[in-house]
Amino acid sequence: MTNETTKVESEEARVALESIKHLEGIALQHAISPRWFAISIALVVGLLVFLIGAGLRDYYIFPIIALPLIIAVQRSKTKASIRTITMQKKTIIALVSLIAFMLGLIFIAIYVRASYGTFLGPIITGVIATLSVYWINESERNKYQNKIDQDKRK
């Protein structure tokens, strides 16, 4: 058995690495969720916070059904997916913080509605929840978009 080695030209290796980076950017671009997804998820979460805060129990079912439907439609349209992240300490802290934040908004809405008899509290907290979820989604989008743009500049 002979030991054969193939020498690769440095230019050929550089071209191959650039091609891999380019394809990685294309895959990442396809994995980024579109703006309609961010807007629709944010609106559904905001609506759910409003409905819970306003005590309109008869209507909880609509956002609860809409949320997985929107996610399913997006998953079926996505041509790629970002690698699943491991549950790191920062991820767990962020998730618990988001849940606590949403529960805080709900309790504030319930308190304002009970104290003042107005839907102003639930409306404001619903808007805050909507904007928060949209901002979180957009910051993630921008993070990946910046990575793609940075790879294109290299």
How would you describe what is shown here?
By secondary structure, this protein is an all-alpha fold. It is 79% helix and 0% strand. Helix 2 runs antiparallel to helix 5 and helix 4 runs antiparallel to helix 5. The radius of gyration is 23 Å and the shape is elongated. The two termini are 42 Å apart.
* Assembly state (oligomeric): single chain
- The stretches of 5 or more residues where confidence is low (pLDDT under 50) are none
Order of helices and strands: HHHHH
Number of helices: 5
**Roughly how many Å is the radius of gyration?**
23 Å
Shape: elongated
Summing up helix and strand content along with how strands pair, one would put the structural category as mainly alpha
Distance between termini? 42 Å
| Mean of pLDDT | 84
Tally the beta strands.
0
The description of the largest β-sheet is: none
Strand percentage lies at under 5%
Work out the helicity level.
over 70%
Question: What attributes does this structure have?
Answer:
5 helices; 154 residues; mainly alpha
Please render the helix and strand layout as text.
Elements (H helix, E strand, L loop, with lengths): L9 H22 L3 H20 L6 H17 L11 H28 L3 H34 L1
What does this entry show, briefly?
The protein has helices at 10-31, 35-54, 61-77, 89-116, 120-153. It is mainly alpha-helical and 154 residues long.
